[in-house]
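forwarding from the other thread:

> can someone predict this with nicotinamide-adenine-dinucleotide?

sure thing
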Amino acid sequence: MMGKLSLPDTLPNALSQFVLRGKTALVTGSYRGLGLVMARALAEVGARVILNGRNSEGVARAVDTLVKEGFDAHGVAFDVTVEEEVERGIAQIEQRIGGIDILVNNAGIQRRVPLIETPLGTWEEVLRTNLTGPFLTTRIVGKRMIERKHGKIVHVCSLASFVGRKGIGPYTAAKGGLKLLTQAMCAEWAEYNIQVNGIAPGFFLTDLTRPLRENPEFNAYVEHRTPSRRWGHPSELTGVLLLLVSPAGDFINGQVIVVDGGILAVM
Ligand SMILES: NC(=O)c1ccc[n+]([C@@H]2O[C@H](COP(=O)([O-])OP(=O)(O)OC[C@H]3O[C@@H](n4cnc5c(N)ncnc54)[C@H](O)[C@@H]3O)[C@@H](O)[C@H]2O)c1
């Protein structure tokens, strides 16, 4: 089924590279936030998309919305931190929906607490979700991609993949690890025609960052510190995503591309 933004059959070569007709994409943690916006963008350029999250009702609701918009959308709920659930969920997708051509590891959590007060459980929860989760999903999906000799993998990283900030130590350790996991996967899988890259969003308007926006001091910090003087809109990530998962990005590998209104570029 084609999405409501019906794609013409012929496009100039430069544009046709971005069309994902016939491709199947799994986006983890995608029934809301950046994940849902990215999944919708993939569907808009013709991909069959699979939404995921731990909450099966939330996943079903988001799938329903995309299907009503005319997109080819499916949902498979699983927790990216639980190995058996990931294995079962991905096997279900491959058997019932199709081989996964594109994997976007988007599921993530934040726990804001100074390092000195961070309980081990919190440290492990953040590491499991933001780093071990992408390892588990990609190890399984990557194996199939190696057999098929093609695949696109995108890890959703963060500014915290590059620099530290007070109060988010576990998240910084996890997202920093995810940047180097991106490079490690590139080193091992590029020869199988698999491209593994990352996107590092700056400060974007989602539920995850609501506590930051509701803090007038932090909100002013973001608006002052970002050269563009504003927060990012989730749709502003989709251009880079489409580049990284389409043939247009076939020779881009092991990179983490920052989309942040310039914040990381300035003192
Ligand atoms: N919003 C930002 O400004 C920003 C900036 C940098 C990076 N990020 C990253 O972008 C990604 C999406 O963030 P968001 O802002 O949309 O947040 P969000 O909280 O709206 O979305 C995160 C999603 O991940 C899902 N999730 C969490 N744990 C999961 C698990 N164990 N298994 C499956 N799904 C799980 C949640 O249910 C949710 O749907 C995260 O990885 C986050 O770290 C966001």
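Residues 28-29, 31-35, 53-54, 79-81, 106-109, 129, 133, 156, 158, 201, 203-204, 206-209 surround nicotinamide-adenine-dinucleotide (CB under 6 Å). thats all i got for now
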